[in-house]
Each structure stands twice: as structure tokens, then as C-alpha cells.
Amino acid sequence: MGGAGLIFDNLGLNMLSIVGRSNTTSVLYLNRIHGEEIKVELFPVDIHNIWLQEEGGVYALMNYVFERYGQLFDHEPRILTTGPASAITDFGAICSVPIQNGKLTAVDTWAGRGDFGSKILKQHNIAVVIYGGTFIDEDFRDRKVADQWFESKYQEKMAAKDIESTAKYCFEKNFGTGGTFGVNYATVKGSMLALNYRSIYMSEEERLSIYSEIYSKQFISGNLMKRLF
Predict the structure, then answer these.
(1) Which residues contact 222 (CB under 8 A, 6 or more apart)?
(2) First-residue to last-residue Cα distance in the chain
(3) Cα–Cα distances in Å, from 79 out to 56, 59, 132?
(4) What digits encode the pLDDT tens for the residues 163-211?
(5) Closest CA to 42 of 32, 30, 33
(6) Of 41, 61, 65, which is closest to residue 50 (Cα–Cα)?
(7) Is 69 helix (H, G, I), strand (E, B) or coil?
(8) What is the C-alpha to C-alpha distance for residues 64 and 128, in angstroms, rounded to an integer?
(9) What is the predicted pLDDT for the residue at 224?
(10) What is the pLDDT of residue 218?
(11) Which residue ranges of the chain lie beneath pLDDT 50?
């Protein structure tokens, strides 16, 4: 989610498990402030009214939470936000944006696989998570140390291995497309999933038709299409 994990590292945690259900729809607040303990609180939030505000949906809720709780963090936090789809469907996603210079940026990042938004809202009654902290992993912030680790394991410096491992997030000339969606769908063909998984009941011919006419035509170059089909 565009660096959301880096902010989570500021809590000094590797994993967080949420159990149970809040009595009221809530904001989950996690903040580590120069110490060993992490402050954990639940704040009630009227999501339905906030979702209807000017920015709408996830953006309205994200702005509300940042304005209300953002100043409680020594360093810029991160916010994971649900929207109306999470309340009324079983495939709602989570939206988040990086925060820079005390402002929410316009760079959307999403966690949509696994119905994360619907699950956290419906099962736990948590609509938003705002988190951050002051824990600093000094070794990893030292580029020389990081390069030593990567050269030992991969025989490449960290930056080179990062570019190699994240090629699909850029334009990939071998596929004639770019981004997670474009590269993944360049080869999936009849194995594509769509319509909230109802595509598994379609014939191979129907799935290929959707794949070629709706997905591939938009994201994949003509030369690659000829090779695929």
C-alpha cells in the first residue's frame, strides 16, 4: 500500500492481530511515543454522516480522522480507511494515502484482495485505523548496512534488487504494459476472475471474451495480444 508498512514499522511491531468486536463503530488508534508501550484506543465515529460529506466516502473519512487525531503523532502517521462498499458488500477494500509535510497527498493506495475493508468493518466494527510511532530501526536506515545484507544474499545492492523485484509496477517492455493489473492480466487469459468470482461458473469461451474485450484491450499492446492469442 505505497509505504504503509514502513509507517507500521515505526510502532516496532511485526504483526497486529485484531480480535473481538467494538461495541460502536470506531477508529482504532495506535501510537508509540518514545517508549516501549504502544498507546491503543478506540474512538467512536459516525461513518455514515462523514461518508456523505463533500469529499465523499473514504476521502471524507480519512480527512476527518487526520484532522482530529493526526496532531497526536510526533511523526506523520498512516490511515487505513473503509468506505460505503465495506458496509454493504462482502468485497470492500481499504484505502490509504501517504502523508507528507503534514498533509494528505493525492496518491491513492488500496488493499482490495481478501475483502479487507468488509472484514474489518463488519466483523470488528472498526472503520479506520490510524497508526504511527517513534520506534527507529537504526540498522536498516543505514544504507551501507542494507547494501551489505543484499549483496550477501543477492549479490546486488538494495536499489538494484528493488528495481528488479518491482519491475511490474513500472512499464514492462516484455509485456507491453505496466502496473500490477496490466502485468498480471497479460498472461492470465481464461483463468481471470471477475464479477465477484462469478466468472468461475462461466465457460472458457465466455471468460476469454471478457478477458480480451474488456481487460486486455485496455492495458496490453497489440503486438503482445497477437502473441497471446
Answers:
(1) none
(2) 33
(3) 16, 11, 9
(4) 887 776 777 777 677 677 677 777 788 998 888 788 999 999 999 988 8
(5) 30
(6) 61
(7) helix
(8) 10
(9) 46
(10) 62
(11) 222-229
Q: Is residue 51 within 8 Å of residue 76, measured between CB atoms?
A: no
206 three-state secondary structure: helix
Residue 107 near residue 97, CB atoms below 8 Å? yes
pLDDT of residue 138: 66
Whole-angstrom Cα distance, residue 165 to residue 158? Answer: 10
Residue 205 CB contacts under 8 Å (≥ 6 apart), including other chains: none
In Å, what is the CA distance from 167 to each residue of 4, 33, 170, 178, 215? 20, 36, 6, 8, 20
The number of C-alpha atoms within 13 Å of 144 and in the hemisphere containing its C-beta is 0
At 114, the amino acid letter reads G
Map grid coordinates 480480535 to a residue.
19
> Are 86 and 114 in contact, with CB atoms under 8 Å apart?
no
Report the alpha-carbon angle 5-6-12, nearest 5.
90
Q: Is 26 exposed, middle or buried (0-12, 13-18, 19+ CB in 10 A)?
A: buried
Per the document, the length of the chain is 229
DSSP symbol at 103? E
- Cα separation, 89 vs 110, whole angstroms: 17
CA distance 164 to 145: 20
Is residue 62 within 8 A of residue 95, CB to CB? The reply is yes
Name residue 177's beta-bridge partners: 172
Look up cell 475493508; give the residue.
117
Which residues are registered as beta bridge partners of 200?
A: none
